[in-house]
Amino acid sequence: MNRNERSLLTWPVIAGAFGVALILMILSLLGTGLAGSTQKTAPDLALADVTIIPAPTATPMIQAVPPDTLLANTPTAETSGISIGSYVQISGTEGEGLRIRAAAGLNAEPLFLGYDEEVFIVRDGPQEADGYSWWYLVAPYDETRAGWAAANFLTLIPAPNGE
């Protein structure tokens, strides 16, 4: 800085610049409403509640059916001729499916649900339990899909070609 510039930076000039800046800041705060609002909100205004309703899904609702109800009063499928090594098809469940169980009997743990027209190979049986004949079935396409099924929902079918 040269001498002329230093003579402009005196304490009264600096204090005046700060004073003008302070006045401008107060005016801008008053103009934008940050210094305080003179406008009051209406007491009868309330916020609306938002209720979120989930979209419907395509998942069907499965209702539990007691095992006795599932097998009782159901016409028995033609089971004569079923033997070990024969092919059977699930039928007559009216779309509900057939519980394939870990052991013969209504109290045995269900392993999976077999569906109408699904084909299985008979590997063991019959065993009598709870008033029904039970056969041990294995899916020809998946050896892990196996278990006991009541004969009431099994129909003997011919073996596929080549077997």
What key phrases describe this protein's structure?
SH3 type barrels; alpha+beta; five-stranded antiparallel β-sheet; single chain; 163 residues; rod-shaped; 7 strands; two-stranded antiparallel ribbon; 2 domains; 3 helices
Structural commentary:
The protein is of the alpha+beta class and 163 residues long. It has 2 domains: 29 residues; 91 residues, SH3 type barrels. Helix content is 20%, strand content 28%. It has 3 helices and 7 strands, in the order αααβββββββ. The strands form 2 sheets. Strands 6-5-4-1-7 form a 5-stranded antiparallel sheet, with no helix packed on it. The protein has a two-stranded antiparallel ribbon with strand order 2-3. A hairpin with a 2-residue loop joins strand 4 and strand 5. The chain starts with a helix and ends in a 6-residue tail after the last strand.
